[in-house]
Amino acid sequence: MTDAAGATPPVATEAGAAAPAAERGPGEAHRHHVHAAVGETKVHVQGLNFWYGDFNALTDITVDIKSRAVTAFIGPSGCGKSTFLRCMNRMNDLIPGTRVEGTMLLDGADIYGPGVDPVDLRRRVGMIFQQPNPFPQSIYDNVAYGPRLQGLKRKADLDAIVEESLRRANLWKEVKDILGRGGLTLSGGQQQRLCIARVLAVQPEVLLMDEPCSAIDPTSVQKIEDLMAEIKDEVTIVIVTHNMQQAARVSDFTAFFLQEVAGEPAVLVEYGRTSEIFTSPSDKRTEDYITGRFG
Fold it and tell me: What pLDDT is recorded for position 193?
């Protein structure tokens, strides 16, 4: 079962099982996973193909998503960026008739392997969507939702996690005196940051962001970009964006997707360091897109 914002009821794996709530200190409830070092591969993808029914949407995607960095997916609308993003936490499994072929590994383990619990996967690989979707609950309960599902009950622990998560989402100062107010009463930009705090509260290893800034105000855009820079040393971030300036500002690596012919599968044209993709791309199609000749 998955909630609308990707904050799924988490199930700890045996190797990464959290200590019982009574044995944990405040803010330590969910810090049991081990991050890869900077520059190591967090998600390895080899020869991935994806279908919606009979339609082959993505073909032969091969890429290594680097740990503790921000990777931007760019490309025209309909070129498979969001589809590929959702492959990384198996959100596409919820769509009837979809199927995947190829290899996708998270820390060397097959995401689509037998015995993989999609619920636990979505705790490890959280997701933020284009439209903010807080629960019809208080600000506090939105953020405490995941930790409570993990069995955390002590109020002091929950208080610490709620505050820490809201601080990391650059929202604490704005809501610290109104935590009992409904999350839906916040502005759109505040709601999006509340959703980010809700995901961060369960300490994901990877954060997928599907155009998180397209429907919010400029002030919140700046705060979300700031938080990406602040948390990337702890969380691997992958963002889909149509904003070339944003991709250049926030990302360390960039992947350019393209569907050249309508009805044909999309491909990954080029992937590399953002500084190189935006200044000296190796493929003419990448250069044409970045410079606004199409898309």
Answer: 96
Give me Rg for the CA atoms of the chain.
19
User: What pTM did the predictor assign?
Assistant: 0.86
* pLDDT value for 241: 96
Q: How many domains does the chain have?
A: 1
For residue 104, the domain's CATH number is 3.40.50.300
> Structural domain of residue 184, as residue ranges?
21-290
Q: Give alpha helix (H) positions in the chain.
A: 81-87, 118-124, 139-149, 155-168, 172-175, 188-200, 218-231, 244-250, 274-279, 284-290
91-131 per-position pLDDT tens digit:
999 999 999 999 999 999 999 999 999 999 999 999 999 99
Residue 242: both structure tokens together: 């149509």
Tell me the torsion sign for CA atoms 191, 218, 286, 233.
Answer: negative
Long-range pairs for 244-250: beta carbons < 8 A, 24 or more residues apart: 244/74, 244/278, 244/290, 246/72, 246/213, 246/221, 247/72, 247/74, 247/274, 247/278, 248/274, 248/278, 249/225, 250/70, 250/72, 250/225
Q: Is residue 95 helix, strand or coil?
A: coil
118: tokens are 């999609």
